[in-house]
Structures are given as C-alpha cells and as structure tokens.
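Reply to dn_fold:

You asked what the input looked like. This is it:
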Amino acid sequence: PIYEDGRLVGPGPDHVVRPVTGSNPWDEVSVVLASSQLVKRRDRRAELLSGPDWDLVVVDEAHHARRKDFLDLSLRRPNRLLELLEGTDGLPGLASKTRGLLLLTATPMQVHAVEVWDLLIQLGLAGRWGASEGDFLRYFEELRVAARSPEDADWRFLTAMARDELEFGGPIDEQIAELLERRVGFAGWSRIRDFPYASDPAREARTMSEGDRAALLAVLRHLTPLRRRMFRHTRALLRRYQEQGLLPGRIAERDPDPRWIPFEPAEAALYERVDEYISDFYRKYEGERKGLGFVMTVYRRRLTSSFHALRCSLERRLEFLRGQRTDLGLTDEDLEDADLSEDVSEELGEVRSRALEAIHAEEIDYVEDFLRDLRALGTDSKFRQLQEDLETALAKRDSVVIFTQYADTVDYLKEKLRVVYGHRVACYTGRGGERWASVAWEPVTKEEIKRAFRNGQVQILIGTDALAEGLNLQTCGVEINYDAPWNPMRLEQRIGRIDRIGQRHDVVWIWTYFYEDTVEAEVYRRLMSRIGWFQGVVGPLQPILNRVERTIRDLALEEPELRTHRLEEELRSLEHEIERARQEGLDLDAMLEQRAEPVEGPPPP
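and this is what came back:
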C-alpha cells in the first residue's frame, strides 16, 4: 500500500483506500510505500521515527539527502531528508531503526565528495573513516599526491587509514591480490601486502620500483569503505563487459545534435520583457525575505520550455495575486527536486507583510500585460522546428519520443500534433498515460503505453520527466528534448530511457532544443565543447553538472544589463572547475571499477 494523505491506498488495480485507525500509521503495515516529500515533513517525520523498527528501508534518489552548506566543512546543516536518516529532535534516525538500508541514486555526488561521506555514514563507517569527514576527504587527496609526487605524500596517514579498513572492512579482494601478484611477482606483492603495517612507510614507498608503487596505489584505492558500501555500474563498465563477452545485447552509440532555434521578432521582444520582469521581481522578493524569489526561478525555467507553459503558470499566478487561490499555483514538477534538496515548501510558508502586499499589487499589472501578449502571440519557432524534425525522423525511423519538463507543454504539444498524427500520438505525465481515441483523449496505463509504442501503434510519445522514470524505450532510436533542464543530469536520465542495453539501433539520435542566444544555450554550448557532454560524462566531472544548474539559475536571474559580463566570468570559472576536477576530483569510477584483466573460463553466475 501507498501511505498518503493520512490513509493507505492499494495495492492492486482496485486502489482500495483504507483509513488509518491507530495512533501511528506505521504500526499498521509491514510493507509500505511513501514519498520522500511526505516523510521528511516535521509532523510525518516524528511519526515515522517514533514508530516501529524495520527490516529494510529503501531510499530512492538518495542524493537528495544532503547538507545545506558544503563549502564550509565546519558548518554542517543537514536538510530535512538527511535529518530523517540521521535523527533529530531527540529521536533516533531512520538509519538506526532498520536492519538493512539501501540508498539508490544515479547521481552519487552533486557538489562535493563530502556528500558521499554523508551517505556512507548512514550505512555505518568504523574507525577513522567514520570519525570525521576530514579524514575521509584527506585520504583521497593524499592518494592524488602520492600518484603525482610520491615524496610529498603522507604515507603514514595512508597506512593508518588502510589498516582501519583492513580491520573493519576485511582483507584485500582475492581476485585483485591474484592479479597484482601476477603483475609484480611474489616478492613485490608480499611487500605491497604488508605495506599498511610498515614501520617506515615513506621509506618503503620511496624505495619501490615505479611498477610496484603503481600496484601499491591500486591497493590503497581498493582499501576504502567504498568497495563494500557502494555498487556502481557505468556505461563504460558495461561496454567492457560486452567486449569481454560477459553481456549480451547491443549498446548503442549516441549521436547528439543540439538545435539552436532563433526567435521570431515578436517572440524575442516578449521573451526579453518577461525575462526582465522575472529578474526584477526575483530581487524584490528576495529582498523581502530570502527564499521568496523561488517562484520567479520557476517561471524562468518555464520560459525556457515554452511560451504556453509560461502562460499557464502566469494564469495561476494571477489567481493567487488576486486572492482567488490560496496556494502559489506551483506544480509537483516545479517543486519536486528543490523541495527534496532545499526544503523550499517549508521556506515558502505563508508570509504576510505590507511590503509584500505592495509587491503583489505591482506584479498584477505586469502579469496581466504579459498574459494579453502571450495569448496574442501568433508564432512558435520551437514548434515549427519540431514539425520539421518529426518529418525527418519518421521518414527514417519508426518512432520518436519527445521529452519536456512540464505537463502544460505536453498538453500544448499533444493537441497540436494529434491534428496531424491522430491516434499515433500518446503522452505520459505525472497524471498517467493518455492516447487519442478519435474524439477525445482517454486515460491508459503505463504498460498500455509501452506496449502500443513497442508494437508501432503509437509512433510519437510525448512525456514529462515522469516518462523518464521506469519506462524502458530501447525500441525507439530518436529522442527530442523540447527543452533542456538546468540540471544536465535530468537530461542524462531522459537519454537513458532509449540509450539502454538491447537498443535495436546502432546509433541513437538525440536532438535537444535551445532558444538561440539565451543563458541556457550559451552555458550548454560551452559545456559541450569542453567536456563532450551528451556523449556521457563519467568520473570526477559528474559533480560539475550540478554546478551547471546553479550557474544557469544565477545568470538567468541576474539583471539583464549585467548578465553579459557576468556570463563570461561564470563560464571561465566553470571551465576552471572542469580542469580542476580532472586533476583533483574524487573519481568514483577509478575507486570502484578495478581494471581487471580478462580471465579464462565462463563468466561468473
């Protein structure tokens, strides 16, 4: 059953609703599903943490459990989700109330390697590894120093940490030991194996041959809690499995081809005015209270998606400003990520002041004016590009999937496309699936959508990022991203729906739309030229992708007259960080994927 709105729903197609009868809902079920947004709330969190212990807790999208400040390690303020795991207000954390804890994420690090430590300690870290994040971070830094300049490394510190891992985590993996012994010989391996217990480790490392020292560093990279607490599967690793005959099924290549779409004159004029309105009122709301400007960041993102999505948002905004609705008119798509990581729902709690009422009154005039112009806008350069691309794609391939961030944009596209393509169009959003049934859109299940798309009854599938969760579309060889999320990892998740093992095309086409000369376009253009993004970013550059989101957000909300100068500054800073990450970043792939040589015999079961 799903726990929501103070009741238990389902399981099964009949969706039976059961009211909660006891004082604590968590006492009434042995297996239950609940959203992270729900259980992290103060009242729900207290219920959960004062409830029963569990055999297993699974936390999806666990990277959202994070600290609010990562640049100053002396200041640690966990967000609500991390507090839920760790405990707060005198209550034990969820991590201590379960026998098993599984944290799932396709984004292990968002900003800083310390976030890996924040998750690992929920799973239990003994010795120096769990005592402080300082020792954890220093170990990987010393490894980098040892590889670059062995005479400058603190070998005594490295051996102390390695001994702790041997004591609490267990011996060196037998396969790694066998591989390295074959590489350096019995005498060399004996010296490496005993290195953590050397009385003078600096002298031992200094007198090793270059080959033996390389093997030693491989062992030290292995002797961390990551080997027993984290399991990671990247595309590069799967490709190596395939090359060694361990993995059946095709792994396709990507052919990314971004579309830089110029505005029509009327679009450019309206975009510029709305852009200025958003940045101006963002500063006004932030000046009244930090966090209140979040609503403007939502409208700026929607402006990137489509003029229709912005129009729908501003219509809801106008109702709020006029007192016709009590909520802010935001959707789950607007709030989900920011609420999990930054607890914005609580930050946006009801605030009243005369200054705020004055800002609202001023904003009404702007919103009314923009809505008149949006309704009268007679051009759509982005949709025209979509029409051309669909004709090209369907002339050569069977099907196309179209992604967008917002259900409002999905509704706009589905109505315009069904006029031409009829029942060959379907869509999927957080509301569920829909197919055109000659006279109206009818609801269908995710399985029906998937089956119709696979057998060719549906050729065009339009969806929000809800479509990018749990739907495998490896029969489709063309993906069109009608908008680009500010966080590139969201874009990577979309691409992962079609770029999967068993993709029937050798090459998948990825076409992503950008309005020409916008902040988003310039940042993505630079990112693609510097790190070859869209081909798949691995290793220490992944945390850079979160910096991209912050860079786009800050620039998009900057005063337009200051933006050009700051854009170059931010792009240079981003490029510097990319280079620094290449040199210094914690490369989880290198730590977890040992470059073992192929072995004879059948693959392990």
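The radius of gyration is 27 Å.
Hope that clears it up.
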